[in-house]
Amino acid sequence: MFKKEKTILCIGAGYVGGPTMAVIADKCPEYKVIVADINQERIDGWNSETLPIYEPGLESVVKRARGKNLFFTSDVFAAIKEASIIFVSVNTPTKTFGEGAGKAANLQYWEATARSIVEHSEDDKIVIEKSTLPVRTAEAMHRILQSNDKGLNFDVISNPEFMAEGTAIDDLNTPDRVLIGAMEDESGQIALQRIVDLYSCWVPKERIKTTNVWSSELSKLVANAMLAQRISSINSISAICEKTDANIVDVSEAIGLDSRIGAKFLKAGVGFGGSCFQKDILNLTYLCEYYNLPEVAKYWESVVDINNYQESRFVKRMIRKMFNTVAGKKVTLFGFAFKADTGDTREAPAKYISKMLLEEHAQLAISDPEALENAAKDLDGIEGDYELIKCPYEAAKGAHAIAIITEWNEFKDYDYKKIFDSMEKPAFIFDGRNILDHKKLYEIGFNVYPLGQQALSHLE
Length: 460
Ligand code: UDX
Ligand code: ADP
Description:
Blueprint: E1 7-11, H1 17-27, E2 32-36, H2 40-46, H3 58-65, E3 70-73, H4 76-82, E4 85-88, H5 108-120, E5 125-129, H6 137-146, E6 154-158, H7 168-173, E7 178-182, H8 186-199, E8 208-212, H9 213-243, H10 248-256, H11 277-290, H12 294-321, E9 330-334, H13 349-359, E10 363-367, H14 372-379, E11 385-388, H15 392-396, E12 401-404, H16 416-422, E13 428-431, H17 438-444, E14 447-450
Parallel strand pairs: 1-2, 1-4, 2-3, 4-5, 5-6, 7-8, 9-10, 9-12, 10-11, 12-13, 13-14
Antiparallel strand pairs: 6-7
Uridine-5'-diphosphate-xylopyranose is lined by residues 161-165, 224, 227, 231, 265-267, 269, 272-274, 276-277, 338-339.
Protein backbone atom coordinates (compact mmCIF):
# COMPACT_ATOMS: atom_id res chain seq x y z
CA MET A 1 0.00 0.00 0.00
CA PHE A 2 1.22 3.47 -0.87
CA LYS A 3 0.76 6.32 1.57
CA LYS A 4 -1.73 9.03 0.57
CA GLU A 5 0.90 11.78 0.85
CA LYS A 6 3.09 9.81 -1.54
CA THR A 7 0.43 9.37 -4.19
CA ILE A 8 1.09 11.56 -7.18
CA LEU A 9 -1.21 12.26 -10.10
CA CYS A 10 -0.26 13.88 -13.37
CA ILE A 11 -3.17 15.20 -15.45
CA GLY A 12 -2.13 15.12 -19.12
CA ALA A 13 -0.30 12.13 -20.59
CA GLY A 14 1.50 13.93 -23.39
CA TYR A 15 5.12 14.49 -24.39
CA VAL A 16 5.84 16.14 -21.02
CA GLY A 17 3.54 14.31 -18.58
CA GLY A 18 4.27 10.78 -19.83
CA PRO A 19 8.09 10.71 -19.75
CA THR A 20 8.37 12.91 -16.63
CA MET A 21 6.10 10.71 -14.57
CA ALA A 22 7.69 7.52 -15.87
CA VAL A 23 11.07 8.75 -14.60
CA ILE A 24 9.64 9.90 -11.24
CA ALA A 25 8.06 6.45 -10.77
CA ASP A 26 11.26 4.72 -11.80
CA LYS A 27 13.41 6.78 -9.44
CA CYS A 28 11.03 6.92 -6.48
CA PRO A 29 9.63 3.43 -5.82
CA GLU A 30 7.95 4.51 -2.58
CA TYR A 31 5.70 6.91 -4.50
CA LYS A 32 2.64 5.78 -6.45
CA VAL A 33 2.41 7.70 -9.74
CA ILE A 34 -0.86 7.87 -11.67
CA VAL A 35 -1.00 9.50 -15.11
CA ALA A 36 -4.49 10.45 -16.25
CA ASP A 37 -5.75 11.83 -19.53
CA ILE A 38 -9.19 12.40 -21.06
CA ASN A 39 -7.88 10.97 -24.31
CA GLN A 40 -8.66 7.25 -24.02
CA GLU A 41 -6.61 6.37 -27.10
CA ARG A 42 -3.50 7.93 -25.52
CA ILE A 43 -4.06 6.05 -22.27
CA ASP A 44 -4.55 2.78 -24.17
CA GLY A 45 -1.26 3.52 -25.92
CA TRP A 46 0.57 4.06 -22.61
CA ASN A 47 -0.83 0.76 -21.37
CA SER A 48 0.17 -1.12 -24.53
CA GLU A 49 3.37 -2.46 -26.08
CA THR A 50 3.52 0.52 -28.49
CA LEU A 51 3.78 3.76 -26.52
CA PRO A 52 1.97 6.77 -27.98
CA ILE A 53 5.17 8.81 -28.32
CA TYR A 54 8.62 7.93 -29.63
CA GLU A 55 11.40 8.83 -27.25
CA PRO A 56 14.72 6.98 -26.96
CA GLY A 57 14.96 5.01 -23.70
CA LEU A 58 11.35 5.68 -22.69
CA GLU A 59 10.05 2.20 -23.31
CA SER A 60 12.38 0.48 -20.85
CA VAL A 61 11.65 3.05 -18.12
CA VAL A 62 7.90 2.62 -18.57
CA LYS A 63 8.16 -1.16 -18.64
CA ARG A 64 10.18 -1.21 -15.43
CA ALA A 65 7.64 0.83 -13.45
CA ARG A 66 4.28 0.18 -15.12
CA GLY A 67 1.93 -1.90 -12.97
CA LYS A 68 4.27 -1.54 -9.95
CA ASN A 69 4.04 2.13 -9.02
CA LEU A 70 3.17 3.70 -12.39
CA PHE A 71 -0.42 3.58 -13.67
CA PHE A 72 -2.15 5.14 -16.67
CA THR A 73 -5.88 5.83 -16.52
CA SER A 74 -8.63 7.83 -18.19
CA ASP A 75 -10.56 8.05 -14.93
CA VAL A 76 -9.26 11.51 -14.10
CA PHE A 77 -11.81 12.17 -11.36
CA ALA A 78 -11.08 9.02 -9.34
CA ALA A 79 -7.36 9.76 -9.61
CA ILE A 80 -7.91 13.30 -8.29
CA LYS A 81 -9.58 11.84 -5.20
CA GLU A 82 -6.74 9.40 -4.65
CA ALA A 83 -3.70 11.69 -5.01
CA SER A 84 -2.33 14.34 -2.69
CA ILE A 85 0.14 15.86 -5.17
CA ILE A 86 -1.23 16.75 -8.60
CA PHE A 87 0.96 17.78 -11.52
CA VAL A 88 -0.92 19.48 -14.33
CA SER A 89 0.57 18.92 -17.74
CA VAL A 90 -2.30 19.62 -20.11
CA ASN A 91 -1.76 21.47 -23.37
CA THR A 92 -1.51 25.27 -23.35
CA PRO A 93 -1.54 26.13 -27.05
CA THR A 94 -1.39 29.66 -28.44
CA LYS A 95 -4.82 31.25 -28.49
CA THR A 96 -6.43 31.26 -31.91
CA PHE A 97 -9.37 33.49 -31.03
CA GLY A 98 -10.31 36.71 -29.25
CA GLU A 99 -8.04 38.93 -27.15
CA GLY A 100 -4.38 37.97 -27.58
CA ALA A 101 -5.11 35.61 -30.51
CA GLY A 102 -1.90 34.33 -32.07
CA LYS A 103 0.18 35.22 -29.01
CA ALA A 104 -1.35 34.62 -25.60
CA ALA A 105 -1.66 31.12 -24.18
CA ASN A 106 -5.05 29.47 -24.32
CA LEU A 107 -5.69 28.53 -20.70
CA GLN A 108 -9.04 26.81 -21.17
CA TYR A 109 -7.64 23.31 -20.62
CA TRP A 110 -5.76 24.43 -17.56
CA GLU A 111 -8.78 26.15 -16.06
CA ALA A 112 -11.02 23.15 -16.82
CA THR A 113 -8.49 20.98 -15.02
CA ALA A 114 -8.38 23.30 -12.01
CA ARG A 115 -12.16 23.21 -11.79
CA SER A 116 -12.18 19.39 -11.95
CA ILE A 117 -9.63 19.31 -9.14
CA VAL A 118 -11.85 21.51 -6.97
CA GLU A 119 -14.95 19.49 -7.77
CA HIS A 120 -13.49 16.06 -7.09
CA SER A 121 -11.14 16.73 -4.17
CA GLU A 122 -12.06 15.54 -0.73
CA ASP A 123 -8.88 16.71 1.01
CA ASP A 124 -6.07 19.28 0.69
CA LYS A 125 -3.77 19.01 -2.34
CA ILE A 126 -0.60 20.41 -3.78
CA VAL A 127 -1.23 21.44 -7.39
CA ILE A 128 1.83 21.82 -9.59
CA GLU A 129 2.10 23.70 -12.87
CA LYS A 130 4.21 21.56 -15.17
CA SER A 131 3.02 23.01 -18.48
CA THR A 132 4.56 26.34 -19.43
CA LEU A 133 2.18 29.06 -18.41
CA PRO A 134 2.14 32.83 -18.52
CA VAL A 135 3.54 34.57 -15.47
CA ARG A 136 0.95 34.99 -12.73
CA THR A 137 -1.18 32.03 -13.87
CA ALA A 138 -0.53 30.39 -10.53
CA GLU A 139 -2.22 33.34 -8.86
CA ALA A 140 -5.36 32.89 -10.97
CA MET A 141 -5.32 29.14 -10.40
CA HIS A 142 -4.88 29.62 -6.68
CA ARG A 143 -7.99 31.81 -6.65
CA ILE A 144 -10.05 29.22 -8.54
CA LEU A 145 -8.85 26.41 -6.31
CA GLN A 146 -9.30 28.32 -3.04
CA SER A 147 -12.79 29.47 -3.96
CA ASN A 148 -14.10 26.03 -3.04
CA ASP A 149 -16.84 25.80 -0.44
CA LYS A 150 -15.49 22.56 1.08
CA GLY A 151 -12.92 24.33 3.25
CA LEU A 152 -10.04 22.66 1.41
CA ASN A 153 -6.56 24.13 1.04
CA PHE A 154 -4.69 24.01 -2.26
CA ASP A 155 -1.05 25.03 -2.59
CA VAL A 156 -0.01 25.99 -6.10
CA ILE A 157 3.58 25.28 -7.07
CA SER A 158 5.41 26.09 -10.31
CA ASN A 159 7.78 23.33 -11.43
CA PRO A 160 8.51 23.89 -15.12
CA GLU A 161 9.96 21.07 -17.18
CA PHE A 162 13.19 21.76 -19.07
CA MET A 163 13.69 18.43 -20.80
CA ALA A 164 14.00 18.40 -24.58
CA GLU A 165 12.41 15.83 -26.84
CA GLY A 166 14.75 13.18 -28.18
CA THR A 167 16.88 13.42 -25.02
CA ALA A 168 14.00 13.47 -22.52
CA ILE A 169 15.05 10.45 -20.50
CA ASP A 170 18.67 11.59 -20.05
CA ASP A 171 17.51 15.13 -19.29
CA LEU A 172 15.09 13.82 -16.66
CA ASN A 173 17.58 11.39 -15.14
CA THR A 174 20.32 14.00 -14.82
CA PRO A 175 18.75 17.45 -15.06
CA ASP A 176 20.95 20.59 -15.13
CA ARG A 177 18.53 21.89 -12.53
CA VAL A 178 15.07 21.35 -11.15
CA LEU A 179 13.22 24.60 -10.55
CA ILE A 180 10.49 24.76 -7.93
CA GLY A 181 8.62 27.97 -7.21
CA ALA A 182 6.22 28.32 -4.31
CA MET A 183 4.12 30.95 -2.56
CA GLU A 184 5.95 32.58 0.30
CA ASP A 185 3.41 31.83 3.05
CA GLU A 186 3.87 29.01 5.53
CA SER A 187 1.61 26.57 3.72
CA GLY A 188 3.40 27.29 0.42
CA GLN A 189 6.79 26.63 2.01
CA ILE A 190 5.64 23.29 3.49
CA ALA A 191 4.35 22.26 0.05
CA LEU A 192 7.64 23.35 -1.49
CA GLN A 193 9.57 21.08 0.89
CA ARG A 194 7.42 18.10 -0.08
CA ILE A 195 8.25 18.61 -3.76
CA VAL A 196 11.95 19.14 -2.94
CA ASP A 197 11.81 15.81 -1.05
CA LEU A 198 10.30 14.09 -4.08
CA TYR A 199 13.06 15.26 -6.45
CA SER A 200 15.73 14.57 -3.83
CA CYS A 201 15.12 10.85 -4.50
CA TRP A 202 17.57 11.21 -7.37
CA VAL A 203 18.54 14.84 -8.03
CA PRO A 204 21.51 16.22 -6.05
CA LYS A 205 20.47 18.99 -3.63
CA GLU A 206 22.62 21.65 -5.34
CA ARG A 207 20.67 21.13 -8.56
CA ILE A 208 17.31 21.82 -6.95
CA LYS A 209 16.66 25.54 -7.14
CA THR A 210 13.78 27.04 -5.21
CA THR A 211 12.26 30.47 -5.90
CA ASN A 212 8.97 32.24 -5.61
CA VAL A 213 6.26 31.20 -8.07
CA TRP A 214 6.61 34.22 -10.34
CA SER A 215 10.35 33.84 -10.87
CA SER A 216 9.86 30.18 -11.64
CA GLU A 217 7.12 30.84 -14.21
CA LEU A 218 9.12 33.60 -15.88
CA SER A 219 12.36 31.58 -15.89
CA LYS A 220 10.78 28.88 -18.02
CA LEU A 221 9.63 31.37 -20.66
CA VAL A 222 12.99 33.12 -20.63
CA ALA A 223 15.02 29.90 -20.90
CA ASN A 224 13.14 28.95 -24.05
CA ALA A 225 13.25 32.48 -25.43
CA MET A 226 17.03 32.68 -24.93
CA LEU A 227 17.62 29.28 -26.56
CA ALA A 228 15.46 30.22 -29.53
CA GLN A 229 17.20 33.58 -29.74
CA ARG A 230 20.58 31.85 -30.14
CA ILE A 231 19.21 29.82 -33.03
CA SER A 232 17.71 32.85 -34.75
CA SER A 233 20.97 34.74 -34.24
CA ILE A 234 23.07 32.05 -35.88
CA ASN A 235 20.47 31.51 -38.62
CA SER A 236 20.54 35.22 -39.44
CA ILE A 237 24.32 34.95 -39.82
CA SER A 238 23.91 31.94 -42.15
CA ALA A 239 22.24 34.32 -44.62
CA ILE A 240 25.34 36.55 -44.59
CA CYS A 241 27.58 33.49 -45.06
CA GLU A 242 25.72 32.48 -48.22
CA LYS A 243 26.46 35.94 -49.68
CA THR A 244 30.14 35.88 -48.76
CA ASP A 245 32.94 33.36 -48.53
CA ALA A 246 32.30 32.70 -44.86
CA ASN A 247 31.16 29.28 -43.68
CA ILE A 248 28.52 29.15 -40.94
CA VAL A 249 29.93 25.93 -39.46
CA ASP A 250 33.33 27.58 -39.00
CA VAL A 251 31.76 30.74 -37.63
CA SER A 252 29.68 28.74 -35.10
CA GLU A 253 32.72 26.78 -33.99
CA ALA A 254 34.88 29.88 -33.73
CA ILE A 255 32.45 31.82 -31.59
CA GLY A 256 31.44 28.75 -29.56
CA LEU A 257 35.02 28.37 -28.35
CA ASP A 258 34.57 31.56 -26.37
CA SER A 259 33.61 30.18 -22.98
CA ARG A 260 31.30 33.16 -22.44
CA ILE A 261 29.29 32.15 -25.51
CA GLY A 262 29.60 28.36 -25.36
CA ALA A 263 29.20 25.86 -28.18
CA LYS A 264 25.66 24.58 -27.66
CA PHE A 265 22.60 25.72 -29.61
CA LEU A 266 24.64 27.35 -32.35
CA LYS A 267 23.79 25.00 -35.20
CA ALA A 268 22.29 26.89 -38.10
CA GLY A 269 19.42 25.09 -39.77
CA VAL A 270 16.09 25.46 -41.51
CA GLY A 271 14.64 27.07 -38.38
CA PHE A 272 13.52 25.96 -34.96
CA GLY A 273 10.32 24.03 -34.40
CA GLY A 274 8.71 22.19 -31.53
CA SER A 275 5.79 22.91 -29.30
CA CYS A 276 7.63 25.34 -27.02
CA PHE A 277 9.90 27.92 -28.61
CA GLN A 278 7.49 29.87 -30.76
CA LYS A 279 4.63 29.52 -28.30
CA ASP A 280 6.69 30.70 -25.36
CA ILE A 281 8.19 33.67 -27.19
CA LEU A 282 4.79 34.81 -28.37
CA ASN A 283 3.56 34.36 -24.86
CA LEU A 284 6.44 36.50 -23.55
CA THR A 285 5.69 39.09 -26.22
CA TYR A 286 2.07 39.20 -25.17
CA LEU A 287 3.06 39.67 -21.54
CA CYS A 288 5.35 42.57 -22.51
CA GLU A 289 2.55 44.22 -24.43
CA TYR A 290 0.17 43.67 -21.55
CA TYR A 291 2.61 45.39 -19.20
CA ASN A 292 3.14 48.21 -21.72
CA LEU A 293 6.70 47.30 -22.69
CA PRO A 294 6.42 47.54 -26.50
CA GLU A 295 10.20 47.77 -27.10
CA VAL A 296 10.80 44.54 -25.19
CA ALA A 297 7.92 42.84 -27.02
CA LYS A 298 9.35 43.87 -30.38
CA TYR A 299 12.80 42.58 -29.47
CA TRP A 300 11.53 39.07 -28.69
CA GLU A 301 9.08 39.00 -31.57
CA SER A 302 11.98 39.47 -33.97
CA VAL A 303 13.28 36.04 -32.91
CA VAL A 304 10.16 34.47 -34.41
CA ASP A 305 10.33 36.77 -37.45
CA ILE A 306 13.86 35.56 -38.24
CA ASN A 307 12.71 31.96 -37.86
CA ASN A 308 9.94 32.47 -40.43
CA TYR A 309 12.44 34.23 -42.68
CA GLN A 310 14.87 31.31 -42.42
CA GLU A 311 12.23 28.78 -43.49
CA SER A 312 11.15 30.79 -46.49
CA ARG A 313 14.74 31.74 -47.37
CA PHE A 314 15.60 28.04 -47.58
CA VAL A 315 12.77 27.34 -50.04
CA LYS A 316 13.49 30.45 -52.10
CA ARG A 317 17.12 29.38 -52.47
CA MET A 318 15.98 25.94 -53.65
CA ILE A 319 13.71 27.43 -56.27
CA ARG A 320 16.34 29.90 -57.46
CA LYS A 321 19.00 27.23 -57.84
CA MET A 322 16.64 24.84 -59.63
CA PHE A 323 16.35 27.26 -62.57
CA ASN A 324 13.66 29.37 -60.87
CA THR A 325 10.96 26.73 -60.91
CA VAL A 326 10.05 23.56 -59.07
CA ALA A 327 6.64 23.22 -60.77
CA GLY A 328 6.05 19.63 -61.82
CA LYS A 329 9.44 18.53 -60.40
CA LYS A 330 9.71 15.79 -57.81
CA VAL A 331 11.37 17.09 -54.67
CA THR A 332 12.23 14.72 -51.81
CA LEU A 333 12.33 15.84 -48.20
CA PHE A 334 14.48 13.80 -45.84
CA GLY A 335 12.96 14.48 -42.45
CA PHE A 336 9.67 15.88 -41.25
CA ALA A 337 10.09 15.77 -37.44
CA PHE A 338 11.01 19.12 -35.88
CA LYS A 339 14.30 17.59 -34.69
CA ALA A 340 16.01 14.20 -34.74
CA ASP A 341 15.02 11.32 -32.47
CA THR A 342 11.36 12.25 -32.19
CA GLY A 343 8.21 11.63 -34.18
CA ASP A 344 6.84 15.00 -33.06
CA THR A 345 6.04 17.48 -35.81
CA ARG A 346 4.54 20.34 -33.83
CA GLU A 347 5.62 23.64 -35.45
CA ALA A 348 8.09 21.63 -37.53
CA PRO A 349 9.81 23.74 -40.23
CA ALA A 350 9.02 20.82 -42.57
CA LYS A 351 5.36 21.75 -42.44
CA TYR A 352 5.95 25.27 -43.70
CA ILE A 353 8.58 24.19 -46.19
CA SER A 354 6.20 21.55 -47.60
CA LYS A 355 3.37 24.04 -47.93
CA MET A 356 5.61 26.53 -49.74
CA LEU A 357 6.90 23.89 -52.14
CA LEU A 358 3.38 22.60 -52.82
CA GLU A 359 2.22 26.15 -53.54
CA GLU A 360 5.01 26.22 -56.16
CA HIS A 361 3.50 23.00 -57.60
CA ALA A 362 6.41 20.75 -56.68
CA GLN A 363 5.63 17.03 -56.35
CA LEU A 364 6.75 16.16 -52.83
CA ALA A 365 7.99 12.83 -51.53
CA ILE A 366 8.57 12.88 -47.79
CA SER A 367 10.62 10.32 -45.89
CA ASP A 368 11.14 10.25 -42.12
CA PRO A 369 12.04 7.37 -39.78
CA GLU A 370 9.40 8.23 -37.13
CA ALA A 371 7.23 11.17 -38.14
CA LEU A 372 5.20 10.04 -41.15
CA GLU A 373 2.06 9.36 -39.14
CA ASN A 374 2.07 12.91 -37.78
CA ALA A 375 3.09 14.28 -41.18
CA ALA A 376 -0.03 12.66 -42.70
CA LYS A 377 -2.21 14.48 -40.15
CA ASP A 378 -0.39 17.78 -40.68
CA LEU A 379 -0.72 17.71 -44.46
CA ASP A 380 -4.26 16.39 -44.50
CA GLY A 381 -6.45 18.79 -46.47
CA ILE A 382 -3.52 20.64 -48.00
CA GLU A 383 -3.76 20.93 -51.74
CA GLY A 384 -0.98 19.54 -53.87
CA ASP A 385 0.81 16.43 -54.95
CA TYR A 386 2.64 14.70 -52.10
CA GLU A 387 3.45 11.17 -50.96
CA LEU A 388 4.79 9.89 -47.66
CA ILE A 389 7.29 7.12 -48.24
CA LYS A 390 9.27 5.48 -45.48
CA CYS A 391 12.02 4.04 -47.73
CA PRO A 392 14.47 6.84 -48.60
CA TYR A 393 15.59 5.15 -51.83
CA GLU A 394 12.00 4.88 -53.03
CA ALA A 395 11.30 8.47 -51.99
CA ALA A 396 14.31 9.80 -53.92
CA LYS A 397 13.73 7.81 -57.11
CA GLY A 398 13.16 10.17 -60.05
CA ALA A 399 13.56 13.29 -57.88
CA HIS A 400 15.24 16.47 -59.10
CA ALA A 401 16.25 17.46 -55.60
CA ILE A 402 16.63 16.24 -52.04
CA ALA A 403 16.30 18.60 -49.09
CA ILE A 404 17.55 17.58 -45.64
CA ILE A 405 15.08 19.04 -43.16
CA THR A 406 15.76 17.04 -39.97
CA GLU A 407 19.18 16.09 -38.59
CA TRP A 408 18.52 12.32 -38.24
CA ASN A 409 21.84 10.51 -37.89
CA GLU A 410 20.81 7.73 -40.24
CA PHE A 411 20.57 10.20 -43.14
CA LYS A 412 24.38 10.29 -43.08
CA ASP A 413 24.61 6.56 -43.74
CA TYR A 414 22.43 6.33 -46.83
CA ASP A 415 24.01 5.14 -50.09
CA TYR A 416 24.07 8.47 -51.93
CA LYS A 417 25.64 6.97 -55.06
CA LYS A 418 22.63 4.67 -55.39
CA ILE A 419 20.31 7.61 -54.70
CA PHE A 420 22.11 9.81 -57.25
CA ASP A 421 21.86 7.14 -59.93
CA SER A 422 18.08 6.93 -59.50
CA MET A 423 17.49 10.70 -59.68
CA GLU A 424 16.78 13.12 -62.55
CA LYS A 425 19.82 15.13 -63.67
CA PRO A 426 21.08 17.60 -62.79
CA ALA A 427 20.55 16.30 -59.26
CA PHE A 428 20.42 18.78 -56.39
CA ILE A 429 20.87 18.33 -52.68
CA PHE A 430 20.02 21.10 -50.21
CA ASP A 431 21.42 20.27 -46.79
CA GLY A 432 19.31 22.32 -44.40
CA ARG A 433 21.14 20.87 -41.38
CA ASN A 434 24.71 20.57 -42.65
CA ILE A 435 24.98 16.92 -41.67
CA LEU A 436 26.18 15.32 -44.90
CA ASP A 437 29.66 14.98 -46.42
CA HIS A 438 29.31 17.72 -49.03
CA LYS A 439 32.58 17.08 -50.84
CA LYS A 440 31.75 13.41 -51.29
CA LEU A 441 28.29 14.26 -52.62
CA TYR A 442 29.82 16.71 -55.08
CA GLU A 443 32.23 14.03 -56.27
CA ILE A 444 29.30 11.65 -56.81
CA GLY A 445 27.83 14.29 -59.13
CA PHE A 446 25.34 16.17 -56.95
CA ASN A 447 25.03 19.94 -57.00
CA VAL A 448 25.33 20.54 -53.29
CA TYR A 449 23.85 23.50 -51.43
CA PRO A 450 24.79 23.42 -47.76
CA LEU A 451 23.13 25.95 -45.51
CA GLY A 452 25.18 29.08 -44.80
CA GLN A 453 28.03 27.93 -47.02
CA GLN A 454 29.13 28.29 -50.60
CA ALA A 455 27.64 25.78 -53.04
CA LEU A 456 29.60 22.86 -54.46
CA SER A 457 28.01 22.93 -57.86
CA HIS A 458 28.81 21.58 -61.30
CA LEU A 459 26.54 24.26 -62.75
CA GLU A 460 27.92 27.52 -61.36
C1 UDX B 1 12.97 22.90 -25.92
C2 UDX B 1 13.95 23.22 -24.79
O1 UDX B 1 15.27 22.85 -25.21
C3 UDX B 1 13.56 22.48 -23.52
O2 UDX B 1 14.40 22.88 -22.45
C4 UDX B 1 12.12 22.80 -23.18
O3 UDX B 1 11.70 22.07 -22.03
C5 UDX B 1 11.20 22.49 -24.35
O4 UDX B 1 11.64 23.19 -25.52
P1 UDX B 1 12.60 20.86 -27.61
O5 UDX B 1 11.66 21.80 -28.30
O6 UDX B 1 12.12 19.49 -27.26
O7 UDX B 1 13.08 21.51 -26.22
O8 UDX B 1 13.92 20.68 -28.49
P2 UDX B 1 15.28 21.51 -28.71
O9 UDX B 1 16.40 20.56 -28.65
O10 UDX B 1 15.36 22.68 -27.81
O11 UDX B 1 15.15 21.99 -30.22
C6 UDX B 1 14.21 22.96 -30.62
C7 UDX B 1 14.40 23.31 -32.08
O12 UDX B 1 15.61 24.04 -32.28
C8 UDX B 1 14.49 22.10 -33.02
O13 UDX B 1 13.73 22.37 -34.18
C9 UDX B 1 15.97 22.00 -33.34
O14 UDX B 1 16.22 21.40 -34.57
C10 UDX B 1 16.36 23.47 -33.33
N1 UDX B 1 17.80 23.69 -33.08
C11 UDX B 1 18.34 23.35 -31.86
C12 UDX B 1 18.60 24.27 -34.06
O15 UDX B 1 18.12 24.60 -35.16
N2 UDX B 1 19.92 24.49 -33.78
C13 UDX B 1 20.49 24.18 -32.59
O16 UDX B 1 21.69 24.41 -32.43
C14 UDX B 1 19.67 23.57 -31.60
P1 ADP C 1 2.80 18.49 -23.89
O1 ADP C 1 3.83 18.50 -25.00
O2 ADP C 1 2.77 19.79 -23.10
O3 ADP C 1 2.91 17.30 -23.00
P2 ADP C 1 0.53 17.27 -25.24
O4 ADP C 1 -0.46 17.90 -26.17
O5 ADP C 1 1.44 16.20 -25.74
O6 ADP C 1 1.34 18.47 -24.59
O7 ADP C 1 -0.25 16.64 -23.98
C1 ADP C 1 -1.26 17.27 -23.27
C2 ADP C 1 -2.29 16.22 -22.86
O8 ADP C 1 -3.24 16.81 -21.97
C3 ADP C 1 -3.11 15.63 -24.03
O9 ADP C 1 -2.91 14.23 -24.08
C4 ADP C 1 -4.58 16.00 -23.67
O10 ADP C 1 -5.50 14.97 -24.01
C5 ADP C 1 -4.49 16.18 -22.16
N1 ADP C 1 -5.56 16.99 -21.60
C6 ADP C 1 -6.03 18.20 -22.01
N2 ADP C 1 -7.03 18.62 -21.22
C7 ADP C 1 -7.21 17.68 -20.26
C8 ADP C 1 -8.09 17.53 -19.11
N3 ADP C 1 -8.98 18.47 -18.81
N4 ADP C 1 -7.98 16.40 -18.35
C9 ADP C 1 -7.07 15.45 -18.66
N5 ADP C 1 -6.21 15.52 -19.71
C10 ADP C 1 -6.27 16.62 -20.49
